[in-house]
Amino acid sequence: MSDPTLLVLTSLADGDKHGYAMMEDIQSFAGVRLGPGTLYGAITRLEERGWIRPVKSQDRRQPYSITAAGRVFLQDELKQMNKLASTAARRLRPA
Amino acid sequence: MKFLLSLAVLIYPREWRKRYGEEFAALLDDSGSGWNVLADVLIGGFKMRAMKTDYRLCLGLGLAGLAIAAAVAFQMPKRFRSEATVQVGGEGAQREDLVEAVIRLEANTLSRTSLSNLIQDPALNLYPGERARMPILDVIEQMKSNDLRIQIDSSPKPSSKVTYKVSYVGTTPELANRTTQRLLQSLMMQSLHQDADAAPRTYEVLDAPSMPVTPISPNRYMISLVGLMSGLGLGLLISGVRRWPRVAMMGVAGAVLAGSLSFAIPNRYVSEGVLRTRDADLAQQIVGRVLGNHDTVMEVIRTAGEGATLKDLSLTASSRELRVRVVSKDRFAAQRAAQKVITSLIDASGSHEGETEAERRIDVIDPPMIPVLPMSPNRLVIASLGLIVGFMVAIAMLVIRRKQAILSLSS
Fold it and tell me: Could you give the 3-state DSSP secondary structure of residue A8?
């Protein structure tokens, strides 16, 4: 899984995070280090679609949280991926 | 590296920087810097620019341009070209002499009088719509520049024969064919007249005026493509104006200012006339006599009106052809002065009233007309220059402001 939007949504699924925290989190669970440009490209798209929203903060670092619509989208994507993964596993199983 | 990163951030759209700039800077501080980070920020910036381009607007205007252009293209009348080929030869004739003879024929055939007769011939009735809304002189100029061609074969081979093509583009195949036939007849009549006192020449019609089958224009696909591209270009322009409104405003302000200032420059009109003498030597002698007469020249300058100088009068001789050109702030004065030069040239040639065709030493091919449009100033060019200067000033101001912002950021 290397789609930055899915990685960001997955990272935010267990709590609010700012940019650098997302970067570290994504690296830890996916082994992918997103660059600042790539990360904020994904954040911009996700916010425009209403799947994440900024959380009030006094810090320069802006935390984000996943919205209900974002959760629905992520669940749909996971179902699709699960279906794909189970189909692939079944077909790879020796007859 | 930090400075380079702050420069790279400037690639992102301004609205994006307003919204995300501070938190993005905080992320850059946290994540550290490096060439890979710089590349990522640059790529992200370019992607963001592309994302912010109003594709729907561009696409919509492009499709609208395509539809309008296609509609216009299908409304445009078809145009057909008819062409004839003529070969001129003569016993012992040199190619240069023959080319010269054809050029003279062309000048006579394309003279205003000759073309005016052709256009207004009831059997052809050329350009009825244009004649209803513009002066006949403009119709003639349009015909000469768009529809009519007399082209000498430019073969460099030494030969005692010269081939030339006569072609005319009309709205129907029949009209194109009939007009080319008439032009050919006119050329033949001119040649008989011209060769009366010259070495005998032969004129052979190699290809009679063709009856065209397929139109040469309009190229509907090309027109539609131009419409599409224009629409897309307009979309990009509007997108650019939205993104950089100050640059656009400065450009428009520059164009309006330059265009307004151009009205302070007085209009200058040019009136031209063409004469032909019996031989080249006579042409040179006449020019020398007229330009050498101080009183005549001063009289012409005075007639040309206030502010006219010697530079505004041009009198040139090329072979047998004499060309008179007078520039003035007053279009009527320009024509009067050019007419005065022509009268002086006729006087200097020794011509007198009642002389026969054979005795005639000088002919007025194109009399000077009262110009309708000024030759200068070109207000469109001046306004365009104002637009470009306005853009450049605005961009320079933008760059200076950004540099100051970068310096304050890095300090």
Answer: helix
Partners of A41 on chain B (C-beta within 8 Å) are 44, 47-48
B27 contacts A23? CB cut-off 8 A: yes
Q: Say what angle helices B14-31 and B2-9 make with each other, to 10 degrees.
A: 160
Read off the pTM. 0.48
CA B347 centroid distance within chain: 36
Q: What angle do CA B174, B175, B178 make, to 5 degrees?
A: 85
Taking the CA of residue B17 and the nearest CA in chain A, the distance in Å comes to: 11
Query: Does the beta-carbon distance from B40 to A19 stay under 8 Å?
Result: no
Return phi, psi of residue B262, to 5°.
Answer: -65, -25
| Position B287, amino acid | V
Distance between CA B223 and CA B75 in Å, rounded? 12
The verdict on a CB contact (< 8 Å) between A20 and B31 is yes
Q: Contact A68/A76 with Cβ under 8 angstroms?
A: no
DSSP symbol at A31: -
Which residue in chain B has the smallest CA separation from A63? B23
| Helices then strands, each counted (H, E), chain B | 15, 8
Chain B contacts of A25, Cβ < 8 Å? none
Residue type, B227: G
Nearest Cα to B16, choosing from B41, B40, B52?
B52
Per-residue model confidence as pLDDT tens digits over B358-372? 567 888 888 898 998
pLDDT digits (tens, 9 = 90+) for B144-172: 888 998 888 766 566 678 888 999 999 99
Q: What residues of chain B lie within 8 A of the CB of A21, using their CB?
A: none
Q: Which residue has the tokens 């420059």?
A: B265
Whole-angstrom Cα Rg for chain B: 32
Is A36 in Cβ contact with B45 (below 8 Å)? no
- What percent of chain B stands above pLDDT 90? 41
Q: Is it true that the peptide bond before B13 is cis, omega within 30 degrees of 0?
A: no
Q: Residue B330 — very low, low, confident or very high, per pLDDT cuts 50/70/90? A: very high
Can you name the residues that pair with B88 across neighbouring β-strands?
B162, B203
How do strand B362-366 and strand B269-277 relate by DSSP bridges? Answer: antiparallel
- CA-nearest of B47, B150, B76, B73 to B107 is B150
Q: Specify whether the CB–CB gap between A62 and A54 falls below 8 A.
A: yes
Per-residue pLDDT reduced to its tens digit, B338-395 = 999 999 999 888 877 666 655 678 888 888 989 988 998 999 999 999 999 999 998 8
| DSSP-assigned letter for residue B217 | B
C-alpha distance from B406 to closest chain A C-alpha (Å): 19
